[in-house]
Amino acid sequence: MISSRSLDDLTPAMKVKCQQFIEKCKEAGIDVAITSTYRDFESQNALYAQGRTTKGPIVTNAKAGESYHQYRIAFDFCPIVGGKAMWSDIKTFVKCGEIGKSLGLDYAGDWHSFKEYAHLQEAGHTLEELRKNHVG
Known about the structure:
- It contains four helices and five strands; from the N terminus they run αβαββαββα.
- The protein starts with 11 loop residues before the first helix and ends with a helix.
- The radius of gyration is 14 Å and the shape is globular.
- Helices cover 33% and strands 17% of the residues.
- Strands 1, 2, 3, 4 and 5 form a five-stranded antiparallel sheet that branches.
- The chain has a single domain, classed as Muramoyl-pentapeptide Carboxypeptidase, domain 2, CATH 3.30.1380.
- A hairpin with a 2-residue loop joins strand 2 and strand 3.
C-alpha cells in the first residue's frame, strides 16, 4: 500500500498549488502540515473501510477510484499550533479552505453531503474524465 505526504507525488501543477497554499497560510499566520497527497487504490479502500468494517471514525465517502488522491490532484492538511495538530479547530480549517479556494482549488469543507474540512483538490475535473485518463 502506498499513502504519501510528499508534494513530489502530486502532479507538477498541483505541487505548485500546494506550495502556494502552504505559503499563503503562513502569510495568514497559520502553519499547516500536509497529511496526505497520493494514495494508491488499496490505501483508499482501507481508508474507506474505516468506521465501516474496521475500527475508527468514518473519514471519507470515496472508495478506490473515487478520490482525487489517486489521480495526484488532491491533498489533505491540518493546521498546526504550537507544534500540535489542531484537528478539531474547524474555524481554522475553514480559513485554510478559503485560502485554497483563492488559489482556484475545490474545498471539501463546502461539500453538502460529507464535509471533509482537511481536503483540497484541483477544480474542473469529473471522476469519469479522471478514470478515463488514468494510466496506473
